[in-house]
Amino acid sequence: MAKPDWLRVKAPQRERIGAVADLLLDLQLNTVCQEASCPNIGECFAGGTATFLIMGPGCTRACPYCDIDFDRSVRPLDPTEPERLGAAVARLALRHVVITSVNRDDLPDGGAAQFVACIDAVRRTAPDTTIELLIPDFCGDGAALATVMAAGPEVLNHNIETVPSLYRRVRPQGDYRRSLELLQRVRQTWPRTYTKSGLMVGLGEEDTEVVGVMEDLRRHGVDILTIGQYLSPGPRHLPVQRFVTPEQFDGWRRLGEGEMGFLQVVSSPLTRSSYHAGEVQRLMRTHPR
């Protein structure tokens, strides 16, 4: 299926992304921008921003939409990773940083302690930087979630990814209800934290199902929503079933920010979970907690 014109992105020029890429290489850090082949890498790297991918690059789940490598082997965590990440945030002078991870179902806490160590490192090296975590579901482990939340991230993001009818095919090791409950628990137990989730479209869902997920997320206390077009990373991954028009994306944005009451909906063909994530600082000023 040929991509429509609105999805055509120019390849990033080396001089635009080189400084960030060289820093990440120097500090031996991974980013989801690179590992997941994000189409916005040129824009974000050129602006001096990145979403750090910890505990990777291999993931213990094999979701058929994702370009991150599958690795079920038991791997020890790198104790130097948090300090290297903190150094990168300071050297890039980031005002807002996103920290995400692969799924590490091989670890007793799913990697919660490593998230905390990374937050602590950023707080030491860049105390004015706001922190957003994009976390896995920790297999429903409430203690792991509490460990992460005790470190005080300003934003907690957990992606719902797709509509319930497609979970078995798209996210076979995930659970729709479990993800909703995680987001609701954060909102109820740590009300000062802004909650966020993301949704891919183009995998075979109906527009009415997208609206249904939006309603579920809002009902469970989600503040910020991202909606973007699924793009298949390669022939081994799920194929695109449809390309959603920019007009439809804008309609979801207006619906979400209007009658549904989300604080922000970032909805466009090229939107990804961390796209324009730094705009949360504006929300923190206009909707303080």
Describe this structure in words.
The chain has 289 residues and is an alpha/beta fold. The protein has a single domain (10-286), classed as Aldolase class I (TIM Barrel). Helices cover 37% and strands 13% of the residues. It has eleven helices and eight strands. It has helices spanning 14-26, 32-35, 41-46, 81-92, 112-125, 142-149, 167-170, 176-189, 207-219, 246-257, 280-286, and strands at 30-31, 51-54, 96-101, 130-134, 155-157, 194-201, 224-229, 264-267. It has an eight-stranded mixed sheet, with helices on both faces. Helix 4 (81-92) runs parallel beside helix 5 (112-125) and helix 5 packs parallel to helix 6. The chain is globular. The protein starts with 13 loop residues before the first helix and ends with a helix. The model has no long low-confidence stretch (mean pLDDT 90).
Overall structural class, as computed from helix and strand content, comes to alpha/beta
Poorly predicted residue ranges: none
CATH topology, by name, is TIM Barrel
End-to-end distance: 45 Å
Total count of helical runs of at least 4 residues: 11
Mean pLDDT: 90
In terms of DSSP E residues, the strand content is 5-15%
Total strands: 8
Brief description of this entry?
By secondary structure, this protein is an alpha/beta fold. The chain has one domain (10-286): Alpha-Beta Barrel (TIM Barrel), CATH 3.20.20.70. It has eleven helices and eight strands.
